[in-house]
Each structure stands twice: as structure tokens, then as C-alpha cells.
Write a structure and sequence with these properties.
alpha/beta, five-stranded mixed sheet, Conserved hypothetical protein from pyrococcus furiosus pfu- 392566-001, ParB domain, two-stranded antiparallel sheet, 14 helices, elongated, 54% helix
């Protein structure tokens, strides 16, 4: 990707074609049924109470700021103003004041994605989907996208990793039932059933992010070093008791054998035993 493209961030895009009213632009009343949502719009969850309040305001005062549309087939693609469109429909309007701009598809995609990534009210999963779309549609690397939106590469990578979560866990993140920190830790798991089990424990046991990270580290070690069964441990203890000098103390615990000694002489006996040849 060229340096020119990398230097063209969200501020540059907005400066090129500001989304505000211009004197030479005509405001048209467009039929709401002709307006299609922008497929690159990452925001999918809208606060119902806020929309109802906006619809009430529209009923009483009308719409002060026109929406922005792009011609598309027999209708229009929404560029900016999705909340106003939804609230206008709730208010019973059939038409909405609009400005028509013939953006090219690449610019529209870039503008929609980068503009919406600046919003503070996106849910974590909406942000993750938007990041993924930006990387796929705009051919950005994680680092390039981070530069565009003022985030680190690690932040972008961690957010996109949330898409590995099971659907039920993703929903819990969206509604705030579990935190982003919990979600990031769970997203490292490949086992979806285990992920859901740990999600349940977070909710029922009020586990912290550190608790979950510790559990996951422990599970990883257990997979790497399978725990020996109690039966096998007892057999090993009997064999060792029959071989080792009675003065040498030892203890089996999971995958460890601990030897203890109380004098230099006992230490020498232990070394002699461990280094002797059969």
C-alpha cells in the first residue's frame, strides 16, 4: 500500500467532502422506502429509548439536518443519518429531507467504515465487524487500520479476535454481561464449549479477568503435560519406597516429585541415589 494512502486518514477524508450543508446543494424530500442501508455501516444495535426520544422530537419539530444519500439503482444508499431514518419511520413520516451526493463506491466504503469507527457508541462486536470489513474491503493491514483510526496494531488484532467467540458469548459482550477484558481472554480458546463454560463461571462466580486468564493458563499447562492418575502415582510411590534409602524423604504431587533432606549427609545420599548406575 502506498505512502499516500497511508497518510490519508479519517480527517483527510472528511476534509475532502465534508458531510454538512453546502449552499449549492439542493435538499430533496426522498421517499423512505427508496433508501437502503449502507452495507458497510458497522452499527447494528441502536438504543431504543434514544430512538423513541428522537422520534418524538421529529414529530414536534421536524428534521433539522438532512441525511446524505448516494444514488443506487432505483433508489439510494444511505451515507449518513441512519438514526434519523429509523426515528423518522417511527414518527410516521413517509419522506425525509436529503442531500444527494454521487460518491464513488470506494470512497463511500472508506468513508462509512472510518467515520463509524470514530463513534464511541459502537458495541465491541460492531467494532470488530467494522475492523474486519475495513481490512477486507480496503485491503488494510492491522497496523495500517490502526494508524487510520488512531489505535495500536495490538488493539486492532485483539478486537478482531473477538469474532472467534461463540454467538452466545458475543451477545453477552454486546449487552455488557461480561467485560471486554473477559472477552479478550476467552477469544484465545479454540474450544467453544469450554468458552461457554467459562463464560457461565464468570457470570455465576463473579470471576475477574485475572481469574479467567489464570484458569486458561492452567488448562494450557494441563494439555501440554497431562496429569498422571492417582492410581499411577500410588504404584510409582511403592516402587520408589522399595528402592530408596529410608532416610530420603520424597513426595508425589501431580506431575512433580519433591525430595526433602535435613542434613548434608541426607543430601549426599539423595545425590548418590539419583546418580548411581543400575
Amino acid at each position: 500500500m502506498s505512502d499516500t494512502k497511508l497518510g490519508r486518514n479519517f480527517s483527510d477524508l472528511m476534509a475532502e467532502n465534508k458531510i454538512d450543508f453546502k449552499e449549492n446543494e439542493e435538499i430533496l424530500e426522498i421517499d423512505l422506502n427508496l433508501i437502503k442501508p449502507n452495507p458497510d455501516q458497522p452499527r447494528t444495535i441502536f438504543d431504543e429509548k434514544s430512538l423513541i426520544e428522537l422520534a418524538g422530537s421529529i414529530k414536534e419539530h421536524g428534521i433539522f439536518q438532512p441525511i446524505i444519500l448516494k444514488p443506487s439503482g432505483n433508489g439510494y444508499t444511505l451515507v449518513a443519518g441512519e438514526r434519523r431514518v429509523k426515528a423518522a419511520k417511527m414518527a410516521g413520516l413517509y419522506k425525509i429531507p436529503s442531500i444527494i451526493r454521487d460518491y464513488n463506491s470506494i470512497y463511500l466504503s472508506e468513508l462509512a467504515i472510518l467515520e463509524n469507527l470514530q463513534r464511541e457508541d459502537l458495541t465491541p462486536m460492531e467494532e470488530a465487524i467494522a475492523f474486519q470489513k475495513a481490512i477486507f474491503n480496503l485491503k488494510y493491514t492491522h497496523e495500517e487500520l490502526g494508524k487510520k483510526i488512531g489505535k495500536s496494531r495490538v488493539y486492532v488484532t485483539n478486537i478482531i479476535g473477538l469474532l472467534n467467540l461463540p454467538a452466545s458469548v458475543i451477545n453477552d459482550v454486546n449487552i455488557g454481561k461480561i467485560t471486554m477484558g473477559h472477552a479478550r481472554a476467552l477469544s484465545k480458546l479454540k474450544d467453544h464449549d469450554l468458552c461457554v463454560q467459562l463464560r457461565d463461571r464468570i457470570v455465576t462466580e463473579s470471576l475477574t479477568v485475572r481469574d479467567i486468564e489464570g484458569i486458561i493458563r492452567g488448562l494450557s499447562k494441563e494439555k501440554e503435560y497431562p496429569i498422571v492418575s492417582n492410581d499411577d502415582l500410588q504404584k510409582a510411590e511403592k516402587r520408589l519406597f522399595s528402592k530408596v534409602d529410608p532416610d530420603i524423604n520424597f513426595r508425589f504431587r501431580k506431575n512433580n516429585i519433591t525430595f526433602t533432606f535435613s542434613s548434608p549427609e541426607e543430601l549426599e545420599k539423595l545425590i548418590d541415589y539419583l546418580t548411581r548406575e543400575e
